[in-house]
Write a structure and sequence with these properties.
- The structure is a single chain.
- It is built from 15 helices and 16 strands.
- It is an alpha/beta fold and 384 residues long.
- Strands 4-14-13-12-11-10-6-5 form an eight-stranded parallel sheet. Strands 1-2-3 form a three-stranded antiparallel sheet.
- A hairpin with a 2-residue loop joins strand 2 and strand 3.
- Helix 6 crosses helix 7 and helix 7 packs parallel to helix 8.
Length: 384
């Protein structure tokens, strides 16, 4: 497997907002630097839906995410490894983060049986039996060759009882320790893939604090907050992030998993989050919903039939620089593939640019004003 260089993974903070604690940082990996706050497009099956790698580069993507479980099933980790790793397989030369497969413990719960040893599951594709555990996850992520790997964890559903959340925290800590040990064995001391721990605990603040306190001594290079954006009210998400803000190590990157609504990104950064990912921009793009500073725009509405203005005024993405609302509506009405591509392009660029804007405002000392202006203008309207 080819790996670009052997640069140690590191993270430095370039500026901190004195009012909110929002951070602008630089995350260094063997395949390049990542400036935070950053939104990571999701390429579940070694492709960001409807987007070519050079288009992701053009829109400013610095890092993308791929899915361990799905790539393990198709085409298989050994095939990806044989191609030279995920970067060579998909021709993306920049950093990649892989999730652990742990989220599938939650999302495919009807096909799974969970114990401390791991997860016995059936493939959602053909029903074939598989065993997922921390050792499996680290081995697959080693074959994929991502720059950042995630510990195998258990995400509690929402709503869930305190007992269910507590059990998920206990098991996540157990699996984090096993993930760390297996990761060290897989890489035999090579500093080419960083492993992040994942804080669980649902909406129970004390369980979140317990999870963080159990993971911090393992000294991971970064920490993620999992198990949010799974149906809980946004106020609960913010409350949990507030509780973790001064607990997670300040000198390490913080990653809020599966969150992609524009307002959630702004409020997450205000609570010290550095990294985000979500399928929302491409999923909504395929359905004709555009991100705008005011909230959601359904470009398929008849009111745009003769609207020859840019889809979103002031946006610098290819779709908005080149085409009109009337044209995008026409593409959807006629079932053209280009409709999904252009709207996905816009939505991805919108979130990537939002990260860039927040970083600039933190560096300039104006993040509180940026946050206030953004949230006053934004009205939401997106389905999660």
């Amino acid at each position: 497997m080819s790996v670009a260089g052997n640069t140690p993974f590191s993270f430095s903070i370039d500026a901190v907002c004195p009012v909110t604690g929002a951070r602008a940082g630089t995350l260094r990996t063997p395949r390049g630097e990542i400036q935070t706050p950053v939104f990571m497009p999701v390429g579940t099956l070694a492709t960001v839906k409807a987007m070519a790698p050079f288009e992701l580069e053009e829109m400013g993507a610095q890092i993308i995410l791929s899915n361990t479980y799905h790539l393990y099933l198709r085409p298989g980790a050994e095939i990806v490894s044989g191609a030279g790793g995920l970067h060579e397989f998909m021709q993306w030369k920049h950093p990649i983060l892989t999730d652990s497969g742990g989220f599938q413990v939650f999302s495919l719960s009807t096909l799974n049986r969970i114990s401390d040893e791991g997860v016995r599951c059936q493939s959602h594709l053909d029903g074939s039996p598989h065993i997922m555990d921390p050792e499996w996850s680290m081995a697959v992520q080693r074959h994929l060759g991502s720059d950042i790997a995630m510990c195998f964890d258990q995400c509690a559903p929402y709503p869930c009882s305190r007992q269910e959340a507590e059990e998920a925290v206990r098991r996540t800590s157990l699996w984090a320790d096993r993930s760390r040990e297996a990761h060290m064995r897989e890489w035999a001391g090579e500093n080419r893939q960083a492993l992040f721990g994942i804080v669980q605990g649902s909406v129970f603040e004390d369980l979140r604090l317990r999870s963080a306190e159990e993971l911090i001594p393992l000294d991971f290079p970064g920490y993620a907050v999992g198990g949010l954006s799974v149906g809980e009210p946004h106020g609960d998400m913010y409350r949990i992030l507030d509780s973790l803000k001064n607990v997670l190590p300040s000198g390490k990157p913080r990653y809020l998993m599966g969150v992609g609504r524009p307002d959630n990104l702004v409020e997450g950064v205000a609570r010290g989050i550095d990294m985000f990912d979500c399928v929302l921009p491409t999923r909504n793009g395929r359905n004709g919903t555009l991100f705008t500073p005011e909230g959601a725009m359904n470009i398929k509405k008849k009111e745009y039939e003769k609207d020859f203005t840019p889809p979103v005024e002031g946006c610098d993405c290819y779709a908005c620089r080149t085409f009109t609302r009337a044209y995008l509506r026409h593409l959807y009405r006629t079932g053209e593939i280009l409709a999904s591509r252009l709207c996905s392009w816009h939505n991805l660029r919108f979130l990537i640019r939002l990260g860039e804007q927040m970083r600039s405002s933190i560096l300039e000392g104006s993040f509180p004003q940026f946050r206030k202006s953004f949230m006053e203008r934004y009205s939401g309207g997106f389905s999660s």
